[in-house]
Amino acid sequence: MKQHKFKYPVELMSKVLEVSKSGYYNWLRSGPSNRCLETRKVIELIENIFEESHQSYGSPRMKVEL
């Protein structure tokens, strides 16, 4: 919705997606969730390990490193 708010009214998008406008605006104000922040940290760790292994580690070795 955020990407399309200049092309379509938020009210219309909320009806089509069956979400409340107030819920959308609360989501915008709330920032990233704890789960999202944790996921970003894990992804960053995986990317660092992959680069340090010269892009040779697969999932078994990656699991051990994590």
Give the class from helix and strand content and strand pairing. Answer: mainly alpha
Low-confidence blocks of residues? none
In what range is the share of β-strand residues? under 5%
Helix content: 55-70%
Strand tally is: 0
Order of helices and strands: HHHH
The main β sheet shows up as: none
DSSP helical segment count: 4
Describe the structure.
The protein has 66 residues and is mainly alpha-helical. It has one domain (10-65). It is built from 4 helices and no strands. The model has no long low-confidence stretch (mean pLDDT 93).
Features:
66 residues, mainly alpha, 67% helix, elongated
Write the layout of secondary structure elements.
Blueprint: H1 10-17, H2 21-30, H3 34-52, H4 59-65
Short synopsis of the structure:
With 66 residues, the protein is mainly alpha-helical. It has four helices and no strands.
